[in-house]
Amino acid sequence: MNVLSVTAEIFPFVKTGGLADVAGSLPKALKSHGIRTRTLVPGYRSVVEALDGATPMARYDCLFGEGATLLAGRADGLELFVLDAPGFFYRAGGPYTDEHGVDYPDNWKRFAAFSFVASQIASGFVQHWRPDIIHAHDWHAALSLVYVKYADAQIPGVLTVHNIAFQGQFPAHLFSELGLPNEAYSVDCLEYYGDLGYLKGGLQAADAITVVSPTYAREIMSPIFGMGLEGVMNARHDDVVGIVNGIDVDVWDPSADPYIAYQYSARTPLRRPPNREALLELFGLPPTSGPVFASINRLTWQKGMDLLAAVVDEIVAMDGRLIVHGNGDAGIEHAFLDAARRFPQHIAVWLGYEEPVAHKIHAGADAMLVPSRFEPCGLTQLYALRYGCVPIVARTGGLSETIIDANVAGLQAQAATGIQFSPIDTDGLRLALRRALKLYRHRRIWEGLQRQGMKTDSSWHLSAARYAELYGDLTATDMRLAG
Ligand code: ADP
Ligand code: GLC
User: Fold this and answer.
1) Among 132, 151, 172, 409, which residue's CB has the most CB atoms within a 10 Å radius?
2) Domains, in order of start, for the chain
């Protein structure tokens, strides 16, 4: 079976978060199910430069006003289609925002052009390769399913919701620029509170909707989590399935990680502590017998990082350490920088986004803090498990179903892998930190948590099978309808 995956990010070439990790690792896991995935990605400079043996497949003189070439090639074991459109994608900032974090004003056009080309590939536009399924990720690719819906050759479409907070909402007057029939601007498709909703249109046009954890799939049926799209999610209820993300266990493998000083595994836990020392040294923090907490995160409200900034005194009081790596909202960045200035022996902050640093932190820290207010799936806690770094997570979304709380039952069954807390506020987080300290002081219990975490299978093994099954069901239905 051939699948066309459509995504605005893919690891290791362009990444702002977990979407890239999923888009980069799922195709590899699907291979053993006989599924060949080719992924369409925008031609950011980093992607075009990484392509091995790029072959031009089509040339557009005026694609939404820009010249563009569709390239096909391989990179890092992935089969890619790349929409090389320098006017849209060679920019100084990130994939969606400029150097100052402001959305590009033409995002509506950049991702419409991208989605339009995806729909052409889905319709058999590329010689010798025709997909059986088109699988779009998040709002940037959602419009491709709307284009497919109105194209001649129809194939089943899957839309994966990684985060419903990002919806691709644009003024309605742009509709006439999209090249879609008038009927597409209706409540059953793109119309969204009087605007255009790319994610909304995709949700309506998709044959199946996957959400990155079953809990988040339920949560977004309600107004608080659905953020305006709960009505659509409820209407499509029967076609929604929650499939928890897996991780690439080759990229995240403490026994073969090139970024860490001392490699180790569940069988050689005594080789882990030198990484802790190296980490404290890297961040300029003195040794301690207290716990070393860390957070690798977007510094945003969603991630609850303001909550963490507000309880640093708790960590200082227990002579713990806190290492924060991330960037995001200016107010939260300042709060952490200020905390590091006030408590230089206890808190260190590295504003930025560095893959190698993230690996070193997972290998060295005692506990990983993920205090998200909402979290569709979350990958950081899964990497932490694999590295023997005990996750402390808010009880929401995918966090609540990937970490087993160290309550009495969890500990007695030797199943616990971390700490869950709620309510998700500063009181809840403070209590979680105190619980962590108690457990940390019982070395046997703490090591049990680490061991259990490292034994957890967070690979794609089970979830790739669910995607394969879904693709199989959709193509079987499609053939029945055609026949
Ligand atoms: P989200 O996609 O919502 O940001 P996830 O937990 O799914 O959350 O994925 C976050 C990904 O981004 C993980 O791979 C994590 O390691 C990575 N990441 C987040 N912040 C940083 C950072 N400052 N430096 C390096 N990697 C980071
Ligand atoms: C989004 C979500 C995150 C999820 C990731 C990959 O960025 O915020 O929870 O893990 O997508 O699906």
Assistant:
1) 132
2) 2-246+461-482 (3.40.50.2000), 269-455 (3.40.50.2000)
